[in-house]
Amino acid sequence: MKKIILLFTCFLLISFTSIANAKKIRIGTEGAYPPWNNLNSAGELEGAEIDFGKEACERMQVECEWVTQDWDGIIPALLNGKYDIIIAGMSITEERKQKVNFTDGYMTDGARFATLSDSGLANLTIGDTTKVNLTDPSGKEKAAVGQLIAAFDGKTVCVQSSTIHQNFVDQYMSNVTMKLYQTVDDHNLDLAAGRCDAILADVGSIIDFMESDGGVNVSFTGPTFSGGVFGEGVGGAVRKEDTDILDMWNKVIADMSADGTTAKITEKWFGRDISL
User: Fold this and answer.
1) Which residues of the chain have pLDDT under 50?
2) Are residues 77 and 19 part of one domain?
3) Number of structural domains, the chain?
């Protein structure tokens, strides 16, 4: 009987501790990926995911603390307990699912190449293919990928490290030189300076760059990519044991999607609805 009482007491303590911890959630973000998340000139976090996270926390009635973390170490820092969830433009991929659990997706944006407008690579058209879904590509989509890769033969493609964009170049573009960068701002600067022939990043991130002074001579090229190595949209990442936090976020993600809140946030920051 004493053992039963002891076990029951331990169960109650664990449950109460879990509930108490859920009243304050630490959110890890990069703070260097506009318009998803970014530190502005005043050192304050802003962006679509910051508005999204603040609204989610208000609805969950929890106190949220934002923690900035370099992208390369963002999953290890989660696993080491630096924060409780990653909200950082992170695409849901099978590779990452081996380490973390993802919430339901809340936003999605395709990936695309960009180059200098006066480059011979600018504004490439691949037949009439404007979108390529790598999850189950058609014959036309496969042909478009092949033509694009051939056009980039021998060129230098710059991407942020430890991203789906690096994964695409690794898997499909052995005929190019790939340069890796810690942040998108770093590879944007190198593109503008002519040290890259092209960059590959999310469409929204590139548009944000194009609208800055440094990106006025930048153009998209080739189709918009989704699926496959590019994942299943953007979601929050949590430790596998934190099922209570996962459930809380999934409920609020569904609510914000259903009432159009996420759509309004993405329209504000991206100029278009990229909500899921």
Assistant:
1) 1-21
2) yes
3) 2
